[in-house]
Amino acid sequence: MRLPLSAVQLVAPLAVSCALAYREGGPRRVRRLLRRALDAKRIEKRIWYPVLVGLLPAVMLATYAFMRMSGIDLRGQAAPITAIPALLLIFLLTGAMEEIGWTGYATDPLQRRMGVLRAGLVLGVVWALWHLVPWIQGGNPPAWVVAQSFRSLALRVLIVCLYNATGKSVFAATLLHAFDNVGVALFPGYDSPQAPAISGVLLGAAAGLAMLLRPGRPGVSARR
Fold first, then answer.
1. Cα 186 from Cα 80, distance rounded (Å)
2. Containing H/E element for 38?
């Protein structure tokens, strides 16, 4: 996965959001924020679980199929299938660290101020810029970095939409984040710019469909 030292910045959303929560309401506010990482009870309709667990891997499978049929080189390092349990554990933990900040703390105030789409786009741009240093230090070419930035933007809009649809569950956002990372880790040839470009287009289409359907009530404040 060629993760550079700068990848440890994944703790930053957790640390910053906890610091801001502490300033707003002390330890009690921090505890409420942290508890949102395990707020699975907000997902009242269990039909959402297949979406949360399967949508992002399905996008990666579709990307793989398209690249294979198009004759694009799929050679490259990928994690073995046997690593899935360990990858899932790692990515659930790291995903929760990020989503407590991006989703649990930042998403609702932005939605109230500028609406769902613009909030998702703003968060997506910041999220992509935040990843730039690790991506560049990882030795990725400029075309890959641009494609991955677009993909991150589309994914963040999708996460915001499904966060609203699942009763504003940070746990739901973490599942999406984790299973996306697992799919990427298992993808052979993801270091090719075509992989994030094609999967980014598919994620953009999924985000557009989610915006059209608009399940949930994004204007309602989250229970904190």
1. 7
2. none
Q: Which long-range contacts (CB under 8 A, 24 or more apart) does 85-89 make?
A: 87/181, 87/182, 87/185, 87/186, 88/178, 88/179, 88/182
Could you read off the pLDDT of 170-194 as tens digits, one per residue?
Answer: 999 999 999 999 999 999 989 899 9
Dihedral sign, Cα of residue 29, residue 7, residue 154, residue 119: positive
Q: Which two tokens stand for residue 217?
A: 């009530």
Among 17, 14, 19, 12, CA closest to 131: 12
Q: Beta-carbon neighbour count of residue 70 at 10 Å?
A: 9
Q: What is the greatest pairwise CA distance in the chain?
A: 56
The conformation of residue 221, written as its DSSP 8-state character, comes to P
Do the Cβ atoms of 23 and 108 come closer than 8 Å? Answer: no
Q: Using 50, 70 and 90 to split pLDDT, how confident is the model at 102?
A: very high
Residue 176 is which amino acid? L
Label residue 81 exposed, middle or buried (CB < 10 Å: 0-12, 13-18, 19+).
exposed
Task: For residue 16, count other CB atoms closer than 10 A to its CB.
Answer: 14
- DSSP assignment letter at 167: T
Given CA atoms 157, 159, 161, 163 in this order, what sign does their dihedral have? Answer: negative
Q: How many CA atoms lie within 13 A of 54 on its CB side?
A: 5
Q: Note the pLDDT tens digit of each residue in 13-44.
A: 999 999 999 999 999 999 999 999 999 999 99
